[in-house]
Fold this sequence. Notes:
Layout: H1 4-19, H2 29-93, E1 115-116, E2 121-122, E3 125-126, E4 134-135, H3 143-155, H4 159-172, H5 179-191, H6 196-209, H7 216-229, H8 233-246, H9 251-264
Amino acid sequence: MRPKSGFFLSSVMGLLMAGCTTLAPSEDPVFLRLTDMEARLIRVERVINNQSLIELANQVDQLQAQTAVLRGEIETLRFELDGGSSRQRDLYLDVDQRLQILEGRSVRPGAPAFATSDSSVADGELLPGATVILELPIPAGTDRDNYQFAIDLLRAGQYADSRNVFVQFLQVFPTSPLADNAQYWLAETRYVQQDFSSALPEFEKVINVYPDSAQVPGAVLKIGFCYYELERWDDARIALERVVREYPDTTAARLAVQRLELISQRPD
């Protein structure tokens, strides 16, 4: 369809030819001039239309580039999520490659984890005023052997038995290089059973007794989580903000940010 400008010029040319000249169209300078103007307008309109197409093509290219970037970010996030899940699982199971496990040792489901000379150790706690002769699950074993035994119990979901072995471990091997880990996982045995009030002081021991431990960021994070579950929002916020401030660019910090967002979304 001819553009309006071309139609207008054609109308003007018709009027001029009808009323202003008797020359043949091919000889009439006015007609020739108008014809030239019309041709130029058509060319301009084509250029404009082509520029619009170019702009659209550029927009499509930009959208495709943005889509490619987003896909890359999605893949990166997926990789980080998978890697984060794996790291959390490895952390939880405390797969310490430095430990040398005696071949063939395993934990029989339902088997008692340890024995004591009396009943003074109950559910991971040394009763007040009690004097006990501790019997570790591997009496002749090293600190590593007994630590791994407790970890195996934890891995098997025998949380009470695992907790009791960790308590004994910390009393028999208080200076072991694994003591900070033992204290952290002792606290975890409370946390995984949703005994958040009891888990809190155990995580605090990690920070107070082993301030240089690599487990401190996780302990501070879990303290924030415990406060969150106990609906002590201000205390939870303080602990989680400490994780973000003191341990940036860590998995613990990212988890703390996520929980802080949940707290911020709570109605006042």
